[in-house]
Amino acid sequence: MATIVFASKPERHSSWRLRLFSCLCALLMAQPAMAGMDVDDVAWPPSIKADPAHTDASLALVAQSLLDGDRPGATELTAAQRSQLQIVAGRYADAAASIESLVASLVEKGDVGRAQRWMPYLLLAEARLVGGSHFEQAYTTAFRARFAQLDDLPALQTHYWFVADVAAASDQLRQAVAEHASGGSISRKVALDLIRQAAFVQTYRTAEAVAPALVREDEERRFLIDDEVMIPAATGVVLSAHTARSRNAGEPLPAAMLFTIYTDPARNRAQALQAAARGYAGVVVDARGKRLGTGEIAPYEHEGEDAHAAIDWISRQPWNDGRVAMYGGSYSGFAAWAAAKHRHPALKAIVPYVAAIPGLGLPMENNVFLTANYAWPFYVANNRLLDNETYGQRDRWADLADKWYASGRPYREIDQEDGTPNPWLQRWLSHPGYDAYWQSMVPYGQEYAGITIPVLSITGYYDDGQISALHYFKEHYRHLPEADHTLLIGPYDHFGAQAPFKTMQLRGYEVDASAQFDTQALTFQWLDHVLRGAQRPPLLSGRVNYQLMGADRWGHAASLDAAAGGHLMLHLSTEREGAHHRLSSSVPRVDGYLSQAVDFADRGTARHSYYPNPIVRDALEPGNGLVYVSEVFERPVDVVGALSGELKVRINKRDVDFTVVLYELMQDGRLMQLTYYVGRASHVRDMTERSLLEPGQWTLLPFERTRMTGRRMAPGSRLLVVVDVLKDAWHQVNHGTGRDVSDESTADAGEPLRIDWHSDSVIRVPVRFHAGDAD
C-alpha cells in the first residue's frame, strides 16, 4: 500500500466535547489515589452515562492516561494499541502517523491483508484533523486520494473492510462500559480492550454513514458493471446475472463464471468484481427463479442445462474471447461439475471447492438421509433471495431432530412433526437409491471420460461434503486415466476450504502454519496457468496435494495410491487390549466375533457419534460401539488417503446402517479423529440397487466411499477404530425390515437387532513408513 504524508493540522473539538472533556478531567483529577491500586490499574471516571458522547469522552480520558505513560512498569503498547488509543484520545495527527507506520510495517512483512484493515481508521484520523462542518468532505477527499494510488485488486480487498455491524459493536461496547459504571479503576488489560472496541465503533460509525457511496463510486470508476443482465436459458426461462470487467480492458477477456443458488446481490456483485480485478470478465449467474430470473426454483435439477446456456451466452458476447472457466464452492462447485457434464466447447476449466454431489453427499450419504440439511430447502427456495429468517431458527431445527427421534415416527413424517411441509425433502425421499434422478445432475459413469478440460478440486479433511469432492476425483481418473485433474486437500471444514484465510484452531485441533493459503487467490493463479500460460502454482505441483497434519508441510504425489504409499491390513480381533480389543495386523489365529444388541424401539438413547467435533478429544464419548486399538508405532507413520475395508457381519434383520471411525490414539491418551464412514449395508456394493441381507447369514460388507485424511502420527501413537450401528436423531433410523427406511417407525422395531462382527473383518488404513524404515 502506498504511503501518503498528510500535513498535520490543528485538532478541533466541538464545544460540547470540550466542556464534557474538561468536566470529566476535573472529576478524575479530584479522585484520591486508590490505596493499593496495582501499577497496571487505570483510573476510571467515577460516573459515566450511556449516551455515546459521554462514553466517547470518558474513554478519551482513559486513553489519554495510558498514552501519557504515567504507569511505570506497565507492559509496552503494541503499534495497534497505540493507534487505537490515539484515535479515542482525539490525537488524530499522532494516530495518522502511527497507522502509516503500522501499515508500512505490515506490508514489509507481507501481511497485506492486515494492512488493508487499517484504512478506515486512517481515513477517520485524517478527516478528524479537519473536523467541524468540513469533516465529511475531508473524509471524501482522503478516501479518493488513498484509493487513487491502489490497483484494482487491492482496492477491492480494502473496500471489504469498510463494512461492519456497527449496531452490534455499539451494544457490545455499551455493555462492557456498563460493567464498570461504578467508577474507581479498571485493569490495564480491560482498559485496552475497551479502547479497542471504542476505536472500532467510532471508525465504523463514520464508515457506515459516508463510505458506501464512496466505495460504489470507486467501483464504477474502475469497472464496467451490469447488475441486471438477463440470460436466456431453457424455453421460457431467463436467468439474471451480474457482470463486471475492467474499464481498461483493451481486448476481449476470458470469463470467470460462478453459478449460484445463494442469491445475495451485494455479495455476488462483489464476487464478479473480484474476478474483474484479477483480469477476467467476472460473471455471477443466479439459478433459475432467483432474483430477477424466471422459472420455478428447483435446487439441483436444472443447473447443468442452465449453466450450459449461460456459458453459451457468455461465449457470444463481444467482451469474451470465447473461453469460460467456472469456479466456486459447495453448490457452485456442484454447478461447475453439472455444466462439465454438458461439455460446452467454450468451457475450458473448472475449479470446484467442496463440491456437492446430490444424492451421494447430501441430502443423503451412502444412501442414508441426513437431517443436518433439513432446513436448507427453505433457505434457498422460499423466495427470490435467501430466507435468512427461517434458516436462522437454529433452535427450531435442532429441536425438530430430537422431537422426531423421540416420537418414533417414520422419517417421511418429520415435516409433520415440525408443522410445516417440506416438499423438497419429500421429493428427495422418493429416490432412496442413487437412481436416474440423481445421476442426471452431475457426470455419471462413462460421462467422466468426456471431461478433458483441466480441473482443480479443493476440499478439506473435515469438510462435511468431502465424500462428494473425493468421488468426483476418483471417478474422473477411473474413467479417464489421463485426466488433467488436480486435488488440493488439507485440515479445513466446509467453509474454511473456501475461505481466503483459514482458521488456525479447528474444533480443538491446532492447525499447522503451512496449511494457510488463500483459496480465491490460488483459484486465479491456477486459471492464469491454464488459460494464460502462467507458471503453475507451487502449491499444486502434484496431482494430489495434501497438507500433512502434524508435520507442518505439504505433500505432493502423482495419485492417491502414490500419496498413500501402502496400506495396513488390520483385523477386528476378539482378543482384549486393555479396556478395548485388538486391532491386529495379522489374521487372528482363532475365528471369532463380537456381538452387539440394539433396541430400535428405545428412543431414549443414541449410539456412538461419528461426527468429528471436537477433532481432538480427551476420551471417547460414552457409547456402545466396539473399540479396537493397534499396537504402538515406535516411529512416525504418515496416514495419507481414504479408509476402506470389508466387514464380515451377521444380523438377525434384513438391513442395518453402520459407522466406522478411525482415530489416532496419542501417547498422552488424547484422540484425534482422522476419518469415518457412514452407510447402509444393503447399498455398500451398489448405490443404485438395494441388496438386502439374509438374516442369520454371514455377509461381507465392502466399504470405500469414505473421506481422505493426511496425518503424521508421532512415535508412541496407535490407531483406534470404532465400529457401531447408526441410531440417532440426525439420520433416518433403519429398523431392518427391508421396506423403504423412510416409512419405518418404532412400530417396526420388533426384537432388538443383534449384529456379530467377525474377526475376519479387515480395515485398510493408508500408511507410509519413512525411507529407511522397515515395514
Question: Would you write up a description of this structure?
Answer:
- With 775 residues, the chain is α+β, with helices and mostly antiparallel strands.
- The protein is 33% helix and 24% strand.
- The protein contains 22 helices and 30 strands.
- The strands form five sheets. Strands 17, 18, 19, 20, 21, 22, 23, 24, 25, 26, 27, 28, 29 and 30 form a 14-stranded mixed beta sheet that branches. A ten-stranded mixed beta sheet has the order 3-4-6-5-7-8-11-12-15-16, sandwiched between helices. A two-stranded antiparallel ribbon has the order 1-2.
- The chain is globular.
- 46% of the residues are buried.
- The model is unreliable at 1-38 (pLDDT under 50).
Task: Write down the overall mean pLDDT.
Answer: 92
- Helix % is 25-40%
Task: Please provide the count of β strands.
Answer: 30
Overall morphology? globular
User: How is the biggest beta sheet arranged?
Assistant: 14 strands, mixed
Structural class: alpha+beta
Low-confidence stretches: 1-38
Distance between the termini: 53 Å
Q: Compute the CA-based radius of gyration.
A: 30 Å
In terms of DSSP E residues, the strand content is 15-25%
- Count of helical regions: 22
